[in-house]
Each structure stands twice: as C-alpha cells, then as structure tokens.
Amino acid sequence: MKALRTLSAAAMAFAMLAATPAWSQSKTIYIGMNGGPMEKAYTTQVLPAFEKANNVQVTVVPGTSSDILAKLLANRAHPQIHAAFLDDGVMARAVSLGLCEKLDDSPVLKELYPFARMKGDVGAGVQLGMTGIAYNKKLFAEKGWAPPTSWLDFANPKYKGKVVFQSASSSTFGLHGLLALNRIWGGSEQNVEPAFTKWASTVGPNVIEYIPNSAKISEMVQTGEAGLFPLTPTGVADLQDKGLPVAYVNPKEGPVLLLVDVCVVKNNPDDQLAQQLAQFLLSAPAQEKAAEAGKQIPTNHLAKMPASMQQSLGNIDDLVHKVTVVDWDAINAHRAQWDTRWNQQIEK
Known about the structure:
thiamine pyrophosphate binding, 2 domains
C-alpha cells in the first residue's frame, strides 16, 4: 500500500483528479477537511489504520468549510470528493442544498452524543467543540485581572482596547459570540435585535480590531494587543502548543456548541468506501487517535481522551449538558441579512 499522501493545496488534488478519469477504480478516496493541525493529526495518526484495513489510499483536499462547500457545489453533478468535514453551520447549508446522503445505519451512530446525530442521519458530528472565552494570561497577570467568567466580560469597560472579535459575517466564533450575548440580552436566533441594538454601547468600544478569522490572534497575543477573544478549547490548545500564554474558560452562561460534522457526498464515485470511512471516523478508536494527535474532542461517548485533555476540560459528559445549541436552520435563513447588517453597522 502506498503511504498516505496529503496535498498542500486543494488545486493540486483536483489536478490529480482531472488527470485520472478512472480514479474511482484505483482504491483512492478523497476527503475534504481543514488544513493545518487537523489535517496533520488525521493524516499521521488516524487515517493510516483505515488505509491498511481497506487497502486504500486516502488523500486530503484541505480547505476551510466554506472552501469545501464551494467545491462540492461546483462539482455536484460529478463529485470528486467522497466525504467532507464541515463546521455544523456550513453542514446545515450543505444538507439543505442536497449535497449529502444518509449515513448507513450502523451501531457506531448509537455511540454518539445525541446532539451529534443530524436529523435523518444525513451527517454526524466527528469532533466536539465549543466556543467560549480565551484570554491572554500574561496580560491579565500584568493588569492584575482575574480570569473572565462570563460572555458579558466582553462588554466590561476595563477591557477597552483589549478585545479582539472575529467577524460574525465570516467566522463561526464571531457569530457564536454575537448570538451568546444576544441570548443574554433577551434575544434568540429568530430575533437578533438586542445584540445589534446594544453592541455599539457595550462590546463595540472595547474592540481593538475585528478580524475575518482567528489566524491573526497568535500575533496579537504576542504583541499584547489581544486580551480577550472567542475561541474553542482546541484552538487555545493550538496556541499553547506554540508557546503562547493563553487559557480557555467556559462562560458561566455556557459555551456555544460547535461541531465538525462528517458528510458522505451524494453520488460520490465509491459510496461503499465513503460510508465505511464515515463509520470509521465516528468510531471510538479513531476518535481516540484524533484526541491524542490533535486534541480533537470526541463525539463518541465511548472514546477516551488523554489525561491532559481530561484535566483541562473536565468531565465531558457533564460539559455537554451545559452547552448552548443554536438553531442553524433559523440562522442560515437570515444569515445574509445579518452579514450585511454586521458589515454596515458594526464593522463600518
């Protein structure tokens, strides 16, 4: 069996696909997922077991969830990706557009936390995440500040000029922060008026910069600009691995659930293998490997995390009962309008 190969750019993967018209018979399958730490964790520690067991090569097509969705749409008539990892909000859009097929009934589905199973089993959570509060420990120590405890800390005047917020129009983390505060102020996914009305007099004055994604945060932590920002435990762990003085806090109102879901692409060239890959990725052994290699939090309740993750996150069974689950159908129905309003009213 050939060694697992990953491609540094999605374009290279699709060049290979285009050059190999009979690729569905070559025992090579393609999966779309985020690049960087996630890709490295899966390609080095998780996927090799599936390759060996099935005499198949798995090639990663890296990209953000939005990138992968765009590729699925562009090739929906003749899909070139067998399965895809998508953030839950993007996955809801993919399902509504008819890009995903029902997962085969399998015992592994019953091992998942209930919220990780999508309606109709058209996809399932492969990685559990939650958006909470990350903070710069060095800066907080220098200022003599206690760790944050609430989403409302983003509106605390003492943090003026030290809050970094991802754009709600382009980042799930930013959108989660907006919706969490909106709920505290009496709103819901059907009514975001409280957040848009209060933002300019609460969080807005504290924000030093709105950023399109989280890529710039490490630099802003190093310079001392970023003191407080929405992020996930996995995102914080990635920063800690770089030696940055950051920590994660679950806000007392509860973090916002953020799943990475796996989708079997409808009409893919090798459905049997794609379904087997999805079942493998949802299994406890695969998720344990992902936790060890990339600090990916399991959605399979039988999977065990390394001791270091258990220590930092606590009891996952308890934590999942505290997360806020948002209504992605309602969000996606109004997302374009919210994005325009955010860009014109908040990031003007």
